[in-house]
Design a protein that fits this description.
- This protein is an alpha/beta fold and 121 residues long.
- The protein has one domain.
- The chain has a four-stranded parallel beta sheet, covered by helices on one side.
- The N and C termini lie far apart (33 Å).
- The C terminus is likely disordered.
Length: 121
C-alpha cells in the first residue's frame, strides 16, 4: 500500500517506509525531523520540468505526460523503488502545497501499475 503525505506533516508510525520524492530538499525540514528511509531525488521531476510546471493546475495534464516520459527514462530506478515498496506500507513524501497536482500523485500511479512486460531478445 502506497500513501502520500506532505513532508511538512509530522511523521507517524503508520507511515511505514518513508520516501522523499522531491529532487530538492524541502526548506525548513531537518534530516532528523524528516525521518526518511530513502530520498529518491533522481525520481523527482527534472529542474526544467519542475520550473515549467510550477504547480499550475492548468498545466497538470501536460506535466503528467512529460513526467511520465522522464520516468520512462528512469525505468531501472522506478523498478528499484517499486521493489523497495513491495509488501510494506510506504509513504511518498513531497513538499508541494497542492495535494492533487504534484509528482508524488503520478509516481504513486506508476509504482502501483503492473511492471511493464519485457521483450525477449
Amino acid at each position: 500500500m502506497i500513501q502520500l503525505k506532505r513532508i511538512y506533516d509530522p511523521p507517524s508510525p503508520s507511515d511505514g517506509f518513508r520516501v522523499l520524492v522531491d529532487r530538492l530538499w524541502p526548506r525548513g525540514v531537518t534530516k532528523e525531523a524528516a525521518k526518511l528511509d530513502l530520498w529518491a531525488k533522481d525520481l523527482g521531476p527534472s529542474t526544467a520540468l519542475r520550473q515549467w510546471f510550477h504547480h499550475e493546475p492548468r498545466l497538470w495534464e501536460e506535466f503528467r505526460a512529460r513526467y511520465r516520459e522522464e520516468l520512462a527514462g528512469q525505468a531501472e530506478a522506478v523498478a528499484k523503488l517499486r521493489a523497495e515498496c513491495a509488501g510494506r506500507r510506504t509513504t511518498l513524501l513531497y513538499g508541494a502545497k497542492d495535494q492533487t497536482h504534484n509528482q508524488a500523485v503520478l509516481l504513486k500511479e506508476v509504482l502501483e501499475a503492473e511492471e511493464p512486460a519485457r521483450e525477449n531478445g
